[in-house]
Amino acid sequence: MKRFIVGATLALFTVGGVHAGKATAGMRLGTPSFRSMGSLTFGPEGILFIADAKAASIVAVSTDDTKPGKAASSLKLVGLEKRIAGLLGTEPAQILIEDMAVNPMSGNIYLSVSRGRGPEATPVLVRVKGESELELVALEKVHFSQVALPAAPAETTTGRSNPRLESITDLAFQDGRLLVAGLSNEEFAATLRSIPFPFKDTSNPTSVEIYHGAHGRFETRAPIRTFVPFMIGKEAYVLAAYTCTPLVQFPLSAIKPGAKIQGKTIAELGNRNRPLDIISYQKDGRVNLLMANSSRGVMKIVTESIDKAEPITAPVPDKKGVGYETLADWKNVDQLDKLDNKTAVVLLREESGAMSLETRPLP
């Protein structure tokens, strides 16, 4: 079934199909259920991992979207909520875009979306194909698998916040394992999980502790907001960013069930700020990080000396450690991902509050 409106092609796109590769061997054919859709990341064979924080679970879906498509190198979709609202038959004010991920096999862009606000919001998955085509991804009769997270925070409906919504704050796939940041119900609530894929019953999370230089104390309950797997020398690490804004490294080998580990704080990037998204990329022989933030724009961090970074173990007034450059022309970026080795896709919040999606050369 296809529907068309002026300015964009809107269609129903069904994922899954009848084909199953090695990564999908343990999946079942059916219709996964979701209470919410938040963080997204891709794994092998076009498999999309979708965080359902309300259910404290992660669903892996075989998208069957593995053929390279036309690269959206000049993508610019303005008024994204309006277009998605037209697709879903609602008003733009009822659309909330939660996350964005690029399928590295096809180059297509996936968006997790809430239709409606509050507890009754309906989660949906939208695909952006090529330069202007939007598709509702129908998650029926698909190959999928699901894993529940043990020791998740209890769900509450009173007070100012619901800790269950931070059971999953970010995802990444690395070397056959899904890395999951968030909170648990344990005393040391901040956690990292390393879950083998195909999914098996997952064990208790790893509790993580950091020294927050701007706050002048150790913290065990502040969740990682965004992170990226990263090689330092020959060892794999997680580079994690926290609110207000420490950058911390954790060795991947230390993330084990039930362990308690302390990260190495390598930078304080400025307080009164919340990191939103982070990617790594290579250019001119250097590995760089790009990190979007709530109040400090997009930071470009050159990592060539990161292996020599001294740990921050004492209070700092504002900034210290690994430095960064603020990209003056990358304003109002909420989310970002790599389209290819030269191009990024960014989700922008315009001054009017409307959202847009566009591609930009990696700086």
What are the low-pLDDT stretches, counting only 5+ consecutive residues below 50?
1-20
Percent of residues in beta strands?
Answer: over 45%
Shape descriptor: globular
- Largest β-sheet summary: 6 strands, mixed
Number of helices: 1
Total number of beta strands: 30
Helical amount: under 10%
Alpha carbon gap, first and last residue: 40 Å
- Average pLDDT, rounded to a whole number, is 90
Overview of the structural elements:
With 363 residues, the protein is an all-beta fold. It has a domain at 1-147. It is built from one helix and 30 strands. The chain has one helix at residues 80-88, and strands at 2-5, 8-14, 28-30, 40-42, 47-52, 57-62, 76-78, 95-102, 109-115, 122-129, 133-138, 142-148, 170-174, 177-183, 190-196, 206-212, 217-219, 226-232, 235-241, 246-251, 260-262, 264-269, 275-283, 286-293, 298-302, 319-321, 325-326, 333-338, 343-349, 355-361. The strands form six sheets. A six-stranded mixed beta sheet has the order 1-2-11-10-9-8, with helices on one face. Strand 14 and strand 15 (190-196) form a beta hairpin. The chain is globular, with a radius of gyration of 20 Å. The termini are far apart. Residues 1-20 have low confidence and may be disordered.
What secondary-structure arrangement, pairings included, does this model have?
Blueprint: E1 2-5, E2 8-14, E3 28-30, E4 40-42, E5 47-52, E6 57-62, E7 76-78, H1 80-88, E8 95-102, E9 109-115, E10 122-129, E11 133-138, E12 142-148, E13 170-174, E14 177-183, E15 190-196, E16 206-212, E17 217-219, E18 226-232, E19 235-241, E20 246-251, E21 260-262, E22 264-269, E23 275-283, E24 286-293, E25 298-302, E26 319-321, E27 325-326, E28 333-338, E29 343-349, E30 355-361
Parallel strand pairs: 2-11, 16-21
Antiparallel strand pairs: 1-2, 3-12, 4-5, 5-6, 6-12, 7-30, 8-9, 9-10, 10-11, 13-14, 14-15, 15-16, 16-17, 18-19, 19-20, 20-22, 22-26, 23-24, 24-25, 25-27, 28-29, 29-30
